[in-house]
Specification:
By secondary structure, this protein is α+β, with helices and mostly antiparallel strands. Helices cover 34% and strands 29% of the residues. It has a six-stranded mixed beta sheet with strand order 2-3-1-4-5-6, with helices on both faces. Strands 7-8-14-11-10-15 form a six-stranded antiparallel barrel. It has a six-stranded antiparallel β-barrel with strand order 16-21-19-18-22-23.
Length: 641
């Protein structure tokens, strides 16, 4: 067995059935390290023991408390084990915590195990046979059905049953590879934090994925604190590398003990995201309790124990024995990865209700029950089943951020196998988005169709601003993706652009010679007016032309991009509008948002005219009004001027 295949065995069973005594007999190590544990004779905290194997490898044990009030501690330890050692006392037989621990192991996906029937020296042989039959019936319908039973005296290391069990566990360790992937981003579920005097803070836990080396920089999540690994102990031995499936203790630089706690994760900086909502697939235990929509529940995930509200994504409640997709809403931040197992207990934390699997750790608050969202979650389930990312991309007509795919797959973005019919698109801000070619083409066709419809409805307009077109056809597409799409449509001559207006090829607005002469005169007068140009009536008086004719010619000039209509009968020279936009952008850069009075003072016109100019910028998509102030929009072609 290689170091990457080290196995972790976890005990389970009712209080006082001999779990700790058995681990001590198997390994020679007393896992009760607290004074209170030794005085009371019960386990309160997780205990750990290690024993060498043939070939130099090390087998690890996690000893969990059996008391019903310490289920949260039991789950923290059981969540990272490969093999269950179910301990049942011959005098008591199967007890309530035996059943609950067994249910938790099954919900966590632990499919390998053995049974230690302890205290056989206290009962008759007939009682031993009766309890063995009881255990076989208990396990028959679950994943541990057929698990071998070892009758023994847990307190005696040389007891024949203990010797046989030890040999079996060592053989299983040699033959059982780790169920945790080493080719994923590193994640360690922290279940213990302590200080080494003179050295620093140590965190310990099960490595759920990936590998870590001395000197690596990791992140404590959900806090987001960067730390450096100074040294590693893997399976209780000093090592230069820690791997998935191993229990590791990492000495950290850059943190204090008070800054880390059980329930946190130590992870690769890209492995996890902190969130208050996760979407999960839940399965409730048959014969137990159901849960209603918005019910308060206790959630055990990794080594964390949190309280959440269960928001149903399918139906109004979830009956005992049923399965459904549910969104768990937490009061504080939590981290999880798709595929992680969780345990659900009732509002009083008295009974285990069921368990489930994390689907999406970036769950949305809005439209969470929409058909599109549920289809996307179904695609995530197919991804977790090994079908790859193509089902996800088919359910994402506007693409999926590459970083989100990395989180779903648990690996670096560069290692995600992209389908041959998918493309990477620069989404701006250093981010990229993956979209299927079919969806990309559909977006382009939708944009072209919208421009075509606009020409039919507005035949005298030269075209449509790209920001407005985006809001009409693809409001969910990021700015960078939209710019890339428009650039491709322009390159392919599907669309053309005149000034800010996108239009179909061949769409033109022309003037007669007489109208052209009047237009030149009007445009000169408007340009000379600067930030306070003349109104249509004043222009008509200057040129001795009819107001309707002046209005008609200026509207056609506006279509051609020579002037811009700010309000009815008031047109601005294009260069003056550009200057006004530059002033506005400069003020926004300095103050983040801009109020009417500040802009009025900067451009030197009256309040009424200032409001007209600002409302024009709102209308063309350069700014957005929020209460009495404006902020810049990011999706307008004006930013390219």
């Amino acid at each position: 067995m290689s170091a990457s295949e080290a196995m972790i065995i976890g005990t389970a069973g009712h209080i006082d059935h001999g779990k700790t005594s058995l681990v001590r007999s198997l390994t020679g190590i007393d896992t009760d390290r607290l004074k209170e544990e030794r005085e009371r004779g019960i386990s309160i905290e997780l205990g750990y023991a290690y024993t060498p194997l043939t070939g130099g490898d090390v087998l690890g044990y996690v000893d969990v408390p059996g008391h019903e009030r310490l289920i949260h501690t039991m789950v923290a330890g059981a969540g990272g084990i490969d093999f269950a050692l179910l301990v049942i006392a011959a005098d008591d037989g199967v007890m309530p915590q035996t059943r609950e621990h067994l249910a938790i192991l099954e919900l966590l996906g632990v499919a390998q195990g053995a049974v230690a029937l302890t205290k056989i020296d206290r009962v008759a042989e007939t009682r031993v046979r009766t309890v063995q039959e009881q255990i076989a019936a208990l396990l028959a319908q679950g994943p541990l059905g057929g698990a071998p039973q070892f009758a023994l005296v847990a307190t005696a290391a040389d007891d024949p049953g203990v010797v046989a069990l030890r040999a079996h566990l060592h053989a299983m360790a040699a033959a059982s590879p780790s169920r945790y992937p080493e080719d994923r981003l590193f994640r360690l579920a922290i279940d213990r934090v302590f200080t080494l005097p003179g050295r620093g803070t140590v965190v310990a836990g099960m490595v759920r994925a990936g590998r870590v080396e001395v000197g690596d920089w990791l992140t404590v999540m959900p806090r987001g604190m960067a730390v450096r690994v100074r040294s590693i102990h893997a399976q209780n031995r000093e090592a230069s590398v820690g791997r998935a499936g191993q229990r590791c203790a990492l000495l950290l630089a850059g943190t204090e003990k008070s800054e880390v706690a059980r329930g946190d994760w130590l992870a690769h900086p890209q492995a996890l995201i902190a969130a208050r909502r996760i979407d999960v697939r839940l399965r409730l235990l048959a014969g137990g309790e159901g849960i209603a929509n918005r019910a308060s529940v206790h959630v055990h995930l990794g080594t964390a124990h949190r309280v959440a509200r269960a928001a149903m994504l399918e139906g109004d409640d979830l009956a005992a024995g049923a399965t459904a997709r549910v969104q768990l809403v937490f009061d504080g931040l939590l981290c999880a990865a798709p595929g992680d197992s969780l345990i659900l207990r009732d509002a009083q934390a008295a009974h285990t209700l069921g368990g489930g699997t994390v689907l999406d750790s970036r769950a949305p608050a809005r439209r969470r029950r929409s058909p599109q969202r549920l289809a996307y979650l179904a695609a995530i389930e197919r991804l977790l089943a090994g079908e790859g990312i193509e089902p996800l991309l088919r359910e994402a007509p506007e693409g999926v951020p590459l970083q989100e795919l990395a989180g779903l797959c648990g690996c670096e973005p560069e290692r995600i196998p992209l389908p041959s019919d998918a493309r990477l698109v620069d989404a701006g801000g250093g981010t990229r988005r993956v979209i299927l070619d079919a969806h990309w083409q559909a977006l382009g066709e939708r944009a072209a169709a919208a421009v075509r419809a606009f020409h039919v409805e507005q035949p005298h307009e030269s075209g449509i601003d790209r920001g407005r077109l985006r809001r009409m056809t693809a409001p969910g597409v990021p700015d960078g993706v939209w710019r890339a799409l428009v650039a491709e449509l322009l390159a392919r001559k599907v669309l053309e652009q005149t000034h800010h207006a996108l239009h179909l090829p061949g769409h033109r607005i022309s003037l007669s010679p007489a109208e052209q002469g009047l237009a030149e005169t009007l445009c000169r007068a408007i340009a000379a007016g600067g930030f306070d140009p003349p109104w249509v009536r004043d222009l008509a008086l200057r040129t001795h032309a009819n107001e309707d004719e002046v209005r008609r010619v200026l509207r056609r000039c506006a279509i051609q991009g020579q002037v811009l209509q700010v309000v009815h009968d008031l047109f601005y020279d294009r260069d003056r509008i550009r200057e006004l936009a530059v002033i506005l952008r400069r003020l926004m850069t300095e103050h983040r948002s801009i109020e009417t009075a500040r802009y009025r003072d900067a451009v030197g016109v009256g309040r009424k005219r200032t409001i007209q100019i600002l409302e024009f910028f709102d209308r063309v998509g350069y700014t957005r009004r929020i209460l009495d102030a404006r902020i810049l929009r990011t999706d307008s072609a004006w930013h390219q001027e």
